[in-house]
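Lab notebook page, bench 4
Experiment: in silico fold of construct C2
Operator: M.H.
Input chain length: 250 residues
Purpose: comparison with the prior construct
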Amino acid sequence: MKGYRVFILFAIILTLLVPILALSEIEDEDPLMEILNEIEADFVESNIDIGGIIDHNLMDIEEIKAIAEEIREDLEIWDEDSYREQIMDEDKYTQLMGQGYDSSQNSIVFTISSYQNLENSHGETFLFVNCIKEEQFTGFNDIINKMEKFFERYDNTVDITRCIIGTVDEEFDLEKNRERILRANSKLKGRIVEQYEDKDVLSYSIFTPRIEQHIYTGDRRMNLNIAAGYNDEENKTYIWIGTPIITIGY
């Protein structure tokens, strides 16, 4: 009888956990992929941009090279055969751009720029990292965590934008794409902040509670950008979905 009561108690606990686990799975679903699926577009690639100030001083080329080695080590850009580096070293301005692949074969480009403001003689050094994956955002969290720790070492914060690109195998239809985007927006309980339309492009700036971070456009919050456009060479409609904004051209 005691064993039976234990079994019943376990069954009750399991029953109570099912909706909690299901809710967790829903909440963990990437809103950007959720939108792409709602629009019924085929995934093409995902893109992440990470950047910010790392020092409020002008750095020389040797200091910048040392930072580049830190980045390569942190992001595991170890393959010397595929790694490329370009350096610009001028008076009051220095830049290093590195390009290669990490251990997961993600394409990574990073740029370190340092300059001195001629008006007030203050210097600043920036880091910008771009990563492209021809698959979904799996593995991006690891890159984000590494770069957040990198900026923490320099006592600075980091700005992060994410974007995914998809396609629909059809010509651009303004009304149909408007309906698709509004349907996806409704699913995310979004509020439209701004919109732009012409015969070839459709773009919406949105705020949704499903995404924590946000920026301001004027005095209004936004954290989601959805756009659609036509590529006549491929005869496809392209879909761009970014948070908080789309940072790649469309």
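Observations: Confidence is low (pLDDT under 50) at residues 1-27. The domain at 48-161 is CATH 3.30.310 (TATA-Binding Protein).
Next step: discuss at group meeting.
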